[in-house]
Design a protein that fits this description.
The complex is a heterodimer of chains A (about 110) and B (about 900). Chain A is mostly beta strands. Chain A is built from no helices and ten strands. In chain B, the strands form ten sheets. Chain B has a five-stranded parallel β-sheet with strand order 3-2-1-7-19. Chain B has a five-stranded parallel β-sheet with strand order 9-16-10-11-12, covered by helices on one side. Chains A and B meet through strand 1, strand 2 and strand 5 of A and helix 14, helix 19 and strand 37 of B.
């Protein structure tokens, strides 16, 4: 995680369905906030690197989300598309404290072009 | 924690495939050591034929370069032959004394070519065809000598002969049998093959037995092991084409190099390069110069290739006291009689069969890896095999019991002028074998029919003409013979998969570079044929042409997805029998190999569970595809479309006004009339969906389920009420049917139509269930669809009353719901199970029909809850609202 994170409190963990996602609307576009089967949290730009499909609407499974438009699989942790596809959705830091979820709008720069 | 030690003896395709599967399933379970007696890392033996033919280079056929082993921490010993297994102390020892301890041992010692025990068999210039050294020797000989003789007219022999001819040698093939490829072809097909090979310049000596190989000096060499010299043929006679140890000819160059040669009567060093052969001593060593038949005649031979069969390498296993019987005997888990020792590949005898083809070996590898990974659920139950000949320009396919016999029926097509021959062998209306020569494109399809035991009674008259003549139904169509030629002559830039924009060159490159063997692998790497599936036949053709035909056309069984070993039917059976009630419970019980499944299996399990337990099952929204979770159709921009139900396609001013009001209020950018006689509102934002639904719901509309694997629409024509041709009230019946069936979840989308007369304006004969009214009643048609591959319905039966129509409609729908695989439409389902099966349950058995209809109606009690109304009133709010809005 980078320094200079401004944590924004989003809401309680229980508002996100397990194996599901919620959308956070921001001025710079939607962010998808995922919750996996084992309650890990990840935030990615809600745009598939393929054709811009809303990743928040996909099926979440095994650390990945399947884009609802053309079934690209995106790794939740890195935002990288699973092979053979190539692409990346920007990821954002997420924090869980005492049942409340916060995110930072500082993008992980590993995915520069997204 | 210290890791267990796994030792693999045999660095060939079967053993290495097992390791690859194992590393996928359990990457950290073992410290792995691999012994191989060839000096190379694992390479693709199937491709030795194209290498010999000059179509591929040696470095192109390496499957696992040395880096691959190193990156995975695998200790690789090449050029080391293992000679001892110490089972008590659990280690193996190689010729040079190096040892490796094991907790688990995997034997993949492959097979050895059978060398005829005839005088001269050990002369320089006599080789077999099974490894890189053999190919090197043949290529070297082709540059210096003229006359090559191949002994053995099987697949391997013919491929060797073809390759040597392409390298400019004058090639003769000697075969004991009366026709070539006698284990794969019947005589007519064999003659066609022989003719085309003769056109390529090969010469054939059939029904000929080789007595001896003569050296350059002209003096018969000392017979190596046989007493009595040239006039004592008994040793060789019986063996030349005796069905070799349960294996027989294989369709590829021999693969796994044996760690120990089988006890061959004449020559243990079959694979040594030429340079190491022969004499030494005081005078220049002689070389083979001619071949003498047992009738005394001779032909010149500067190079002799023995390709008369292979035998499993079992010496190492036998010396360790493992039970062998024409192969290392294994059970269905690939375990030998020593529970710590597994075996795979050509050295194995499974249920009395030793396989020599790559597809079964890969099936074995998968099962073995599953057990080595301690998942412990997979079983190998044998494979049905098919063969193709890898000679460019000759298309040949053979599978199963192609010779026919008692109780078998044959369908034959023969056009000698065109060089085409097809024979299909049926037993009890099921395909059990076949030979194709000339046009082999449908081979994969026939093979699938054989494997699945599909009842072909319904399309037997068209069977011979191939899948494309059937009006296949989106199950993955094939292409005709002409289409195949067209594909192979296309440039690399030609688009094959229109859905994903994959060109021919992309597929060929991926197959070569990533060493792909199966259609599934090609799909995973290129996406070709991964969406609508209509180009499947073309992709298979390209795959087959690129890997040389020995690709795995069809695994012995198809698991639901990569998360499980089990098939759709096995999983459904387990859900019912073991009363599994949730997705996680099912995954646990069935030993899923992923923590929470994938986007393929979760929706399938969700459907199977709700179908099995309609009263109890709590739908798992997160295992639904977004359209079904949000009850609208997602569009490319992330907005949704909304299609209200209009019963039987009827509407009125009040409904139209309500729809117009909604469209204006929510500024719907586009409206369209659908093919199913409904009105579609496009471009609705997800957040607006509940409000849109509330207004529609207040006006009396329910969801049209245009987004679901569910009953979509009942399309009708105007019928007797208005139409001068109408025979029955088709609209009225359509409304009743839609009211009975709406809301039901199905394996795939499901459409009905009712036409008022045989003019069929509602197009009922391309629907899943279509009713065509006639003056005397109602014809019921099933299994049709438009779409990628149009399929016209089959006539199920004819009934007289509306009540009967209702009951049949419910019964057929329920049978499909209970037996169809998830995402399998009725058309491929009907083809898979056969119309006779459906008639038996729905038409002929009145009691069962009533039970099916009853089960359907019972499940409708919980299914007919309007999802729009619930959500219009605030249900599932989290699905439609953002969790937070951040101004920044």
């Amino acid at each position: 995680m980078t320094h200079n994170e401004n944590w924004l409190e989003i809401g309680p963990l229980s508002d996100i369905p397990r194996q599901g996602a919620r959308v956070i609307k921001t001025a710079r576009g939607d962010i998808a906030l995922f919750r996996t089967v084992d309650d890990a949290l990840f935030a990615l730009a809600d745009r598939c690197p393929h054709k811009g499909g809303p990743l928040s609407q996909g099926i979440v499974h095994g650390g990945k989300v399947a884009c609802p438009l053309h079934d690209w699989k995106i790794h939740l942790e890195t935002g990288l598309a699973a092979a053979p596809d190539v692409g990346c959705a920007a990821s954002y830091p997420v924090r869980l404290r005492e049942g409340m979820v916060s995110i930072s709008l500082t993008r992980d720069e590993a995915c520069a072009h997204a | 924690m210290t890791r267990m030690k796994l030792v693999l003896v045999g660095n060939g395709m079967a053993g290495m495939r097992t390791l690859e599967e194992l590393l996928k399933a359990a990457p950290d379970l073992y410290d792995i050591t691999v012994f191989g007696d060839e000096p190379h890392p694992n390479y693709n033996r199937i491709m030795l034929s194209p290498v010999l033919a000059g179509e591929q280079a040696l470095d192109q056929i390496i499957l696992n370069p040395r880096d691959w082993y190193a990156q995975r921490g695998i200790t690789l010993h090449t050029g080391k032959r293992v000679v001892k297994i110490e089972r008590k102390q659990r280690f193996v020892e190689a010729e040079d004394g190096s040892r490796a301890e094991y907790d688990r041992l995997l034997l993949a010692t492959g097979s050895s070519p059978f060398i005829l025990p005839i005088p001269g068999a050990d002369l320089p210039g006599v080789v077999s065809f099974r490894d890189i050294a053999d190919v090197d020797a043949m290529i070297a000989a082709s540059g210096r000598y003229r006359h090559a003789v191949v002994i053995g007219g099987g697949l391997l022999g013919l491929e060797a002969a073809n390759g040597l001819a392409l390298r400019g040698m004058d090639v003769s093939v000697v075969h004991l049998g009366g026709h070539l490829l006698d284990r794969q072809l019947d005589e007519p097909a064999s003659l066609l093959l022989q003719r085309s090979l003769e056109d390529k310049g090969l010469k054939f000596f059939l029904k000929k037995q080789t007595a001896e190989l003569l050296p350059t000096t002209g003096i018969p060499p000392t017979p190596p092991l046989i007493k009595g010299g040239i006039d004592s043929p008994p040793r060789s006679k019986g063996e030349i084409d005796a069905p070799l140890p349960s294996n027989g000819e294989t369709d590829s160059p021999p693969r796994s190099k044996g760690e120990i040669d089988a006890p061959l009567p004449s020559n243990g060093e079959t694979d040594s390069p030429l340079s190491q052969r022969g004499g030494g001593g005081d005078f220049p060593s002689p070389r083979v110069a001619a071949l003498r038949f047992n009738d005394g005649s001779e032909i010149p031979a500067d190079l002799v290739v023995m390709a008369v069969g292979i035998r499993p390498n079992t010496r190492l296993a036998e010396s360790a006291g493992l039970h062998c019987n024409r192969g290392v005997v294994v059970d269905d888990t690939m375990q030998t009689y020593d529970p710590r020792i597994y075996a795979v590949g050509e050295c194995v005898s499974h249920r009395g069969i030793a396989y020599g083809l790559v597809a079964p070996l890969f099936d074995q590898a998968k099962v073995c890896a599953n057990h080595l990974a301690e998942h412990g659920v997979a079983r190998y139950q044998g494979s049905m095999t098919s063969t193709k000949l890898k000679v460019t320009g000759i298309d040949l396919f053979s599978a199963g019991q192609f010779l026919g016999g008692e109780d078998h029926e044959e369908i034959v097509f023969q056009d000698a002028g065109r060089g085409a021959y097809k024979k299909l062998v049926l037993k009890d209306n099921r395909l059990v074998g076949g030979v194709l020569y000339g046009d082999t494109l449908d081979g994969a399809w026939y093979f699938e029919l054989m494997r699945d035991g599909t009842n072909v009674a319904d399309f037997r008259d068209k069977l011979l003409f191939g899948r494309h003549h059937l009006g296949d139904s989106g199950a993955g169509g094939g292409a005709g013979g002409d289409e195949k030629l067209r594909v192979m002559s296309l440039p690399d830039t030609a688009e094959i998969c229109g859905c994903n924009g994959v060109c021919k060159g992309d597929i060929i490159r991926a197959v070569r570079e990533k060493k792909l063997f199966t259609l599934d692998e090609v799909r995973a790497h290129t996406k070709a044929s991964g969406s609508c599936g209509s180009c499947t036949g073309l992709v298979e053709t390209i795959l087959a042409a690129t890997v040389g035909g020995d690709y795995s056309v069809a695994p012995s069984k198809k698991p639901l997805c990569g998360c499980t070993e089990y098939t759709h039917d096995e999983i459904r059976g387990a859900i019912r029998e073991n009363r599994l009630k949730t997705v996680p419970e099912t995954m646990r019980f069935m030993d899923w190999n992923t923590p929470d499944g994938c986007a393929k299996c979760r929706p399938a399990l969700n459907y199977y569970l709700l179908c099995a337990w309609p009263d109890e099952y709590v739908d798992d929204a997160q295992s639904r595809y977004i359209n079904e979770r949000a009850h609208g159709n997602i569009q490319k921009d992330g907005s949704f479309s909304v299609v209200p139900r209009m019963w039987g396609g009827l509407t009125n001013p009040k409904e139209l006004r309500a729809i117009a009001d909604v469209a204006e209020k929510f500024q719907v950018p586009e409206m369209k009339v659908t093919g199913g006689q409904r009105i579609d509102l496009f471009g609705i934002k997800k957040e607006d969906l509940p409000a849109v639904w509330k207004d529609l719901s207040d006006a009396g509309f329910v969801s049209g389920h245009a987004y679901g694997k569910a009953l979509r629409t009942v399309k009708t024509c105007v019928g007797a009420k208005w139409c001068r041709f109408g025979t029955q009230d088709s609209t009225g019946l359509g409304v009743k049917l839609e009211q009975m069936t709406w809301g039901s979840w199905m394996p795939h989308k499901y459409k009905l139509a009712v036409s008022g007369c045989p003019r069929n304006c509602a197009e009922a004969t391309i629907k899943d269930f279509g009713i065509v009214c006639v003056d005397s009643g109602y014809e019921l048609h099933v299994g049709g669809n438009g779409g990628i591959k149009v399929r016209i319905t089959d006539l199920l039966t004819k009934v007289e009353t509306e009540e009967q129509v209702m009951q049949y409609t419910a019964a057929f729908a329920q049978l499909y719901r209970e037996e169809g695989h998830y995402l399998e439409r009725t058309a491929p389902w009907v083809e898979r199970v056969g119309l006779a099966h459906i008639k038996a349950k729905v038409v002929e058995d009145a009691v069962y029909r009533a039970l099916l209809a009853e089960r359907f109606l019972a499940s409708q009690k919980t299914a007919q809850v309007d999802p729009w109304k619930e959500r219009g009133q605030g249900g599932q709010r989290h699905e439609f609202t953002p969790m937070a809005v951040i101004a920044a």
